[in-house]
């Protein structure tokens, strides 16, 4: 059981062009939907990533958030998933090594086809502030609500 | 796995005096807390009842509501429970046979000590309307927000 409780510090960028070597990277098809998704950042999210299922509780706004995640069985997921109707999105996630970190690139599908966003998570706010993005990353959209998954799913 | 998706039709009463024969009835100690609890009736509730754990999603207000419930493992429950801090309540629930139905009597504890509420669930709205409460039931508080568990937990 993958149970994590932590405070999330991350930065988010638009992707100017896809980096080289993607075909050799880890990749997952993700479908996610929201049981709850509020303007103040409170959310309860269901996610299917590859063959894994999870429920995530998040609270707070900005680059430091509280997050609690539990794995679900397929049966638990299937029982709750219908309640997310109208609040869903689908994306392909690539995980790309970058120095000592991993960058997640999300390629959105369906009505958000064409949108590609990269996220990098940090242990400390100082490291997040000092991060120098490679040239294939474009505008810094950290905290920009237009690129929150909550809004993209609504 | 107990997975239920249904529309709930119920009536709620204050309890004037406890009915006879309670000691022979089914009884459970319940602790519940809310990950989400909104005025419009949207809620995500965690519950420990005896040795069982569950997560319930509810939407809607009044005597007809949508409800989806899944059993949780103790580990899943423990990972999410801290997020309900400040939005919890404890009660003893008795299940009492009454004709062809079962009445649930909730005896609240801690800061709600002294409050006792009974709930009966029906298959159809017509049956709910026609229900004649026995004399040990008092005021009909169906839909009265003062006696919602959401409010009692806040």
**Could you tell me the radius of gyration of chain A in angstroms?**
15 Å
> Uncertain regions of chain A: pLDDT < 50 for 5+ in a row?
none
Mean pLDDT reading of chain A: 89
The number of strands of chain A is 9
Strand content of chain A: over 45%
- What distance lies between the first and last C-alpha atoms of chain A, to the nearest angstrom? 30 Å
Number of helical elements of chain A: 3
Q: Based on the structure, what is the oligomeric state of the protein chains?
A: homodimer
Structural class category of chain A: mainly beta
User: Strand arrangement, largest sheet of chain A?
Assistant: 1-5-4-3-2-6-7-8
3D shape of chain A = globular
Helix content of chain A: 10-25%
Can you describe what's shown?
In chain A, strand 7 (101-108) and strand 8 form a beta hairpin. Chain A has an 8-stranded antiparallel barrel. With 154 residues, chain A is mainly beta. Chain A has helices at residues 74-80, 125-130, 149-152, and strands at residues 4-15, 26-37, 43-49, 52-59, 64-72, 88-98, 101-108, 116-122, 137-140. Chain A is built from 3 helices and 9 strands. The A-B interface holds A 1, 3, 5, 35-36, 42, 44, 55, 57, 59, 66, 68-73, 75-76, 78-80, 82-83 and B 1, 3, 5, 35-36, 42, 44, 55, 57, 59, 66, 68-73, 75-76, 78-80, 82-83.
Q: What does the secondary structure layout of this molecule look like, with pairings?
A:
Two copies of one chain form a homodimer.
Chain A: E1 4-15, E2 26-37, E3 43-49, E4 52-59, E5 64-72, H1 74-80, E6 88-98, E7 101-108, E8 116-122, H2 125-130, E9 137-140, H3 149-152
Antiparallel strand pairs in A: 1-5, 1-8, 1-9, 2-3, 2-6, 3-4, 4-5, 6-7, 7-8
């Amino acid at each position: 059981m993958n149970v994590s409780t932590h405070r999330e510090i991350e930065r988010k960028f638009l992707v100017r062009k896809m980096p080289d070597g993607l075909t050799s990277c880890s990749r997952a098809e993700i479908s996610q939907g929201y049981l709850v998704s509020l303007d103040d950042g409170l959310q309860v999210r269901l996610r299917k990533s590859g063959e894994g299922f999870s429920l995530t509780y998040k609270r707070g706004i900005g680059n430091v958030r509280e997050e609690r995640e539990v794995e679900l069985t397929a049966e638990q997921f299937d029982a709750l998933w219908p309640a997310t109707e109208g609040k869903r999105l689908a994306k392909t996630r690539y995980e790309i090594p970058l120095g000592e970190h991993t960058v997640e690139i999300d390629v959105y599908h369906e009505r958000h086809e064409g949108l590609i966003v990269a996220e990098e998570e940090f242990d400390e706010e100082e490291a997040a502030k000092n991060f120098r993005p490679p040239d294939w990353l474009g505008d810094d959209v950290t905290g920009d609500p237009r690129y929150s998954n909550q809004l993209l799913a609504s």
